[in-house]
User: Fold this.
Amino acid sequence: MDTDKQIKQIVLARMERCSVCHRGFEPDDVHVLSRKSDMWMLMVSCGECQARNFVAAVIGDGDAEEAQLALRRLGEEHIRTSREIEDEDPGEPQDPVSIDDVLEIHEYLQGFDGDFQALFRGR
Assistant:
């Protein structure tokens, strides 16, 4: 078994279920954010309610205090980013998508060659 799978299995064995909705975690719910030789930072996200948990896995002689500080920074960054998203001005309310909008994009896509770089370069 490779190291990624081993670390994920250890994390899953310790966490088991989402603390919000109690759904059992699966291996695909564990995401490696960063790794060093002695510490891995992971995020475990619930596929049901989208709750997120940040985990520091200390390997061998890794520094547990350093891991706690890294987790704290990661949590603070996540909270700050979430607040910035919430504080963004949504702008003017948009009209709902109309049948004409759907037909227009359908006609456009019929001739679209798939080159998104060229499409967005024109903006």
